[in-house]
Amino acid sequence: MKIEVIGCGSAFSKISNTSSLLVTDNTGNQLLIDCGPTVPRALYNRSTSVNEIGAIYFTHIHPDHCTGLTALFNYWKSHHRTEPVTIFCQEENKSPLQFLALFANWPAKELCFEVHWQMITDHFVWNHWQLETAETQHELTNRALRISADGQQLFYSGDGRPTQASIDLMQHTDLAFQECASFDALDETSSHGDFYACKALLEKSNIKRLGLYHCWDEAIAEIKQSAATIEYLFVSHDGLTIDLSE
Ligand SMILES: [Zn+2]
Ligand SMILES: [Zn+2]
Description:
By secondary structure, the chain is an alpha/beta fold. The protein has a single domain, classed as Ribonuclease Z/Hydroxyacylglutathione hydrolase-like (Metallo-beta-lactamase, Chain A), CATH 3.60.15.10. It is about 20% helix and about 30% strand. It contains seven helices and 14 strands. It has a seven-stranded mixed β-sheet. Strands 7-8-9-10-11-12-13 form a seven-stranded mixed β-sheet. Strand 7 and strand 8 form a beta hairpin. The longest helix is centred in the N-terminal third of the chain and has 11 residues. The model has no long low-confidence stretch (mean pLDDT about 95). Bound molecules: zinc ion (2 copies). One zinc ion (ZN) binds next to helix 2. One zinc ion binds next to loops. This is Ribonuclease Z.
């Protein structure tokens, strides 16, 4: 399983793309996780075929995680995509996402490729992948994702503070990405992760590597400095590629 960080930034980052991962399995199946406003351009820059991404998973629909869908679909339409795409989302997020998709070819109602909408459940399957989800503590309902494929395990938190359910979901993964907006400790009722909570999370779990992302720009320097002293902990960056098969 190959993981490419398309973006690791918070909603209004001036440094990084909005947060998104591209996950590719050993047979070439590609899933994009989240698609915020700066993600389409990052994908155009990769100069790969418009047919390669087979599915998009939305953790939640804050604008920094979904509003790139219109531009991405418009790009795929303009470059004559032919392959169907599957959208995985929460039931209550389907209709706003469908509007973003429809707007990609406004005022026409159809695109030149099929869009299959599939609702997220606790556990579902895509190709030979096992996908499991759990809610984090966030302003909007956010579902963290665990992918098991080719004998490898990846966890991606989406936004929000860890919950017992999301902590359980990240156990025994080869690589986990956890949202860490703040360096300073935030209140337990907060909607975002912080460095001290992430550090504690790593200490009491059996994750092989923990990547912090979605950091507020002003917190990045302190988070990087402190993370550098802790084994198995790193701060994500745009363009980072990790191949779990290596
Ligand atoms: Zn966000
Ligand atoms: Zn959010």
